[in-house]
Every structure is written in C-alpha cells, then in structure tokens.
Amino acid sequence: MSEIDDLVAKVARELGAQSNSSNTNSSSTSTSSTISSNNGEELGAKDYPLYSKHPELVHSPSGKSLDQITIDNVLSGSVDSKDLRITPDTLRLQGEIASNAGRPAIQKNMQRAAELTSIPDDRLLEMYNALRPYRSTKQELLDISQELLEKYNAKVCSNWFKEAAENYEVQKKLKGDN
Q: 108 to each of 75, 120, 122, how far by Cα in Å?
C-alpha cells in the first residue's frame, strides 16, 4: 500500500472515530461559477486559487468534481487515494495563471509537474535518484531523457535530463568521476 493510501486510511479512521464519538455531521459547501473551461478566456492572477475561484475546472483523475471529494465519500469508499492526486490539466491551468501573472518560472514548474503525473511513482523515484551526483553515467541520463520523451511525451523533463547529463559531465559529477 502506498503512503497516500496509508494516509487516506488513517484520516478515514480518525474522522470515523471523531464522527462516532461526537455524532456531528459535516456539510460541504460548493461554489458555483459561470466560467466554463471552454469559454476561451485565459486565466490570470484573479483566478487564483483555482480550486476556490473555479472549482468546476478542477477534477480528480477519475473525473470526480471537488464537491464529490468529501469525508463521507472517503469513508464510504467511493473516493480513494487516486482521487486525491492532481491532474495534468489542473497543473496546466495553474501554470496558465502563473504565466499570466508574470511568473514564468512557476509556469515552467507546473508544466514539468503535469508531465510527471503520467510516470509511475516507482519509476519517477528511480529517475530522481539517477539525478543525484555520481549515480549515473552520461548515457544513463540521456537514456532517461529519451524514455521521458518517447514513452511519456515529457518534453520539458526530457530536456532537463539532457541538461543534467551535459552539466554533470562538465562538473565531473557523473558515475565514476568521484
């Protein structure tokens, strides 16, 4: 079981215990908005935070809306840990907000994060470990770059690994350089 699954289970147990001991019911409120994701308007600083300004644009990977992600639904099992993950679309929208607010570095980070959502957690950890100094050869980093590009269509991340391979070579941080 992953750490997220463990966390969701723990929260569900604690909330179940609180609910049973205090007999309180939680109610969720949802905000309705007239903005549509298809209206063509760009998002900007006024739209941050996205989840509260435009909850209709934020969905779980399984398509659940924010108002469906409640403690009651977690306790009933209709929401699981996968529903608590952010989607590439939400990250791209957050990046659009950042870019239009004059924060291009944050936009680039959001774009990179959006690409990473398609990579299995175990493989992602292996890739990040490969970036640690003296852990990989230049070819291994270039192979990961190619994998990111071809298998996951992660162009920004692919370029990041290419840069790392070149920089590590210059700075003598490749496997065998120490």
A: 36, 21, 23
Q: What's the whole-number mean pLDDT along residues 29-51?
A: 63
- Give the pLDDT of residue 21: 43
Q: Identify the pLDDT of residue 3.
A: 57
- Omega prior to 49 cis, within 30 of 0: yes
The mean pLDDT of 10-17, rounded to a whole number, is 52
The reported pLDDT for the residue numbered 33 is 28
Among 82, 80, 41, 91, which Cα is nearest to 61's?
Answer: 82
SS3 65: strand
In the block, which residue shows the tokens 């009933």?
A: 76
d(CA 54, CA 34): 9
* CATH number listed for the domain at residues 119-178: 1.10.1510.20
Pinpoint the alpha helices (H) of the chain: 3-22, 50-53, 71-76, 88-100, 104-116, 121-130, 138-152, 155-170
Q: Where are the domains of the chain?
A: 1-21+37-117, 119-178
